[in-house]
Amino acid sequence: MNDPTRLILVEDQTLILGALATLLDMEPDLTVVGRASDGEEALRLVAGQPVDLVLTDIEMPGIGGLELARRLHRDNPNIIVGIVTTFARKGYLRQALDAGVQGYLLKDTPSDQLADAIRRMCAGEKVIDPELAAAARSGENPLTERERQVLKLAAEGLTTEMIALRIHRSEGTVRNYLSEAISKLHARNRVEAARIAREQGFL
């Protein structure tokens, strides 16, 4: 009999984390070897033991799930990463896939389907929530990488001058990027554009 698949679960809501661990530990071919409340704690757990798959939420304090996926993909490419989240946003799905994530599921997925999805991920299959995959095909992120970067910095409160210094471009160029982002998102100003982009998972 093969050894069970070793899982680390990353979720900042304690009740959900405990429920997930209990449900997945009931599967004979899966074992939860670690639980973390954020990405930083997950990276410490990964460094200390053999792990096959990390199942993580997206939005958490400190290092979130997308950044965790990027770091694992870069530094531990043998570890499979799956997302389980409440955020059914096509922009998040695109970022997750770009970060090397093998699966993207929603928290209302039944436990038996989640366990099956983990097995399929370990077998090399991409496992995406079907409704979310269909929504993603209907509308990609309209922002370029530079527009996304500039809008994200603006959302953090940086002025046009500060953004220009940060990305080594002129203030006029930064204003052009912001204007394009505002136009593409049909927003009235940079604040509204950042809100729309965040709600859609584009930032």
TrEMBL record:
Domain Response regulatory: 6-122
Record-linked Pfam families: GerE, Response_reg
Alphabetized SMART domains for the sequence: HTH_LUXR, REC
GO MF annotation terms: DNA binding
Domain HTH luxR-type: 136-201
InterPro entries: CheY-like_superfamily, Sig_transdc_resp-reg_C-effctor, Sig_transdc_resp-reg_receiver, Tscrpt_reg_LuxR_C, WalR-like
Record-listed 4-aspartylphosphate modification sites: 57
Keyword entries, A-Z: DNA-binding, Phosphoprotein
GO terms for biological process, alphabetical: phosphorelay signal transduction system; regulation of DNA-templated transcription
Record protein name field: Response regulator transcription factor
